[in-house]
Amino acid sequence: MADTENTPGNSMHGVSAKEKAFAFSVASPIMPTDPIAKFKLPVDSEHKAKVFKIFSLASPHMTTFHLSWLSFFTCFVSTFAAAPLVPIIRDNLNLIKTDIGNAGIASVSGSIFSRLVMGAVCDLLGPRYGCAFLIMLSAPTVFSMVFVSSARGYIAARFMIGFSLATFVSCQYWMSTMFNGKIIGLVNGTAAGWGNMGGGITQLLTPFIYELIRRAGATPFTAWRIAFFAPGCLHVIMGILVLTLGQDLPDGNLNTLQKKGDVPTDKFPKVLWYAITNYRTWIFVLLYGMSLGIELTIDNVIAEYFFDRFNLKLHTAGVIAATFGMANIFARPLGGLMSDMAARPFGMRGRLWNLYIVQTLGGIFCICLGRASTLPLSILSMILFSITTQAACGATFGIIPFISRRSLGVISGLTGAGGNFGSGLTQLLFFTSSRHSTATGISLMGIMIVCCTFPVALVHFPQWGSMFLPATKDSEKSKEEYYYGAEWNEEEKQRGLHHGSLKFAENSRSERGKRVGSDPTPISATPAPV
Amino acid sequence: MAARGLLLASIYLSLLVHECYGVTLFSSLQKTLQVTTTTKRGQVLKAGEDKLTITWGLNQSLAAGTDSAYKTMKLQLCFAPVSQKDRAWRKTEDHLNKDKTCSFKIVEKPYNKSLQTLDWIIESDVPTATYFVRAYALNAERHEVAYGQSTNDQKTTNLFDIQAITGRHASLDIASVCFSVFSVVALFGFFFHEKRKARMSPQK
């Protein structure tokens, strides 16, 4: 590569005053552009895009972005499609409150397991197959709603449809392979946020489709079943698009590259080991349960809450419920953007503080929502709550790609699973028993969020620091190469398997924040394999 | 931001409008009407198929002039307590605006002094539950002023069961299976096709 490395005094950032203020792109020579690669967008040494052009369809980077978020969006639509139709379904199937509550818990529990598996699948088979397999194999579960005739069948169907939420993991993983680390916060936040928006859109879409079918002459108890064909067909269409238009990595598909010898195949037990022995993984599992988990719980509970507490009409309550989910269109990308912006001056420490502040604010507004006794105050609290909680989700995934390079898939999977577990747990603790009202349940949930966000302070990276501690002074441990190289043993390093991690370490030096220019550039130690 | 403000304002306004509506309490109504249904104990009626025969009218033993304000009669299908259990969306409230006991309207007719009979074919959107029938008399402002029901005050006698339609159809079932099979076959077709292509391409 002929381009210049980062040497002190060479950074041109800010000099011309023409650089964009927001992290939509990474300018050279902060991140050297690979001049040999032939892509429509400027790319770095791993051929990941340095620029995020939202409205472009440039292959492979932006095509991947759109395929990825649309697949995830589709799965959210089908998982929560039943929620606004519950008033009809509960009459058709003769459900009681416990059945409805259990179905809500079931809808988010299925994906705890599937997100774990998806992480491994992405590491081993690639995100393209992972996404396509899941979305096309869960289409029959959506169509199975047509057969449901009892509470048990309903709960089982919602449980199985919920498996499809694992497309979140393939979505985030795919973004991490296609976009550079400096903009990954924004990219991941946007993709996931627009996907999560499906949970809000479905509160408007499904009743609308149901109404159309009813006007066409179907009886209510048949019309809701037909309405499920819409998300089902979306699954099939998106699956086919992913298979025909998508690719795993910027350079091609995983199995083709593995055969060519460009990407070494890895062993699952090792990948799993490095994921579970990294303590940061478990802290983020808890944290994500308190941001995404809460968001999913609210998706299931909020329409009913407004309907009961303020005696609103069902469709008014549905509009409010939709507003909560649709704030994702900007709130989650905002969280990723704020993470990237905080990282420019402060590096990883900025990202951690950003996450802590935003998620704690989410908890505080949740407490306000539970305690608000007038409708306008309640709606205001809900809006602020939705923005901060969803921004926290975005901020979380601005940090996750840096925890590990080797086990990114499994860690993404574990974190995603933690999100769903948090949702099931909070629904069980606060919204199933009649010991306290829904309003009290919401307030108690807010207190739980605030308490469980403190562990962010414990996340420490030796090369970058943590919330309260700076980076280590040790000359060896303060290098990114040391941290990412530690995931490979000597034998694997001899075989050159860790080169992907080394490239990643080089590109992740931006997480030092302003210190990048003043540290001497490490000499690349290992020679390229012959 | 402006859209949010508009949403807030409109919701607040609609709530105010809702509150302005008459606040009629069920406990304030007089029980002057009589309603009977011709159902046998333990009989299960099928929605969409079976008929319910209802006879209703003013209790003839009352003084003349009791019904001077009655302009319209409304017959409704109401849930018995056993079908309201664990179902907060069918809860009985004294405020008639908030009361969810009687969700299904059978018929609404101008008031007639004499006894009326109706053969009502149970509609297909009626859920499986235990029911009784209630009649309301409405005055000129369409507020409830009197009522009568086919069961006693504790809602324990003369209740009948209705079995809802399943909502399922053979054509829907077949369509669902076809779409599902297509999805699975398309997926594995692609997968094996690509695997074959990769195996056949020369390795470097």
TrEMBL record, chain A:
Biased composition (Basic and acidic residues): 506-517
Residues passing through the membrane, by range: 67-88, 127-148, 155-175, 226-250, 314-331, 352-373, 379-403, 410-430, 442-461
Signal peptide: none
Gene Ontology terms describing biological process: cellular response to nitrate; nitrate assimilation; nitrate transmembrane transport
Classification via InterPro entries: MFS (IPR011701), MFS_trans_sf (IPR036259), NO3_transporter (IPR044772)
Keyword Transmembrane listed: yes
Keywords recorded for this protein, A-Z: Membrane, Nitrate assimilation, Transmembrane, Transmembrane helix
Region (Disordered): 495-530
Highest taxon in the source lineage: Eukaryota
Membrane topology type: Multi-pass membrane protein
GO cellular component: plasma membrane
SUPFAM superfamilies given in the database record: MFS general substrate transporter (SSF103473)
GO terms for MF: nitrate transmembrane transporter activity
Localisation per UniProt entry: Membrane
Presence of the UniProt keyword Cell division in the record: no
Family to which the UniProt record says this protein belongs: Belongs to the major facilitator superfamily. Nitrate/nitrite porter (TC 2.A.1.8) family.
Protein name: Major facilitator superfamily (MFS) profile domain-containing protein
Organism name: Citrus sinensis (Sweet orange)
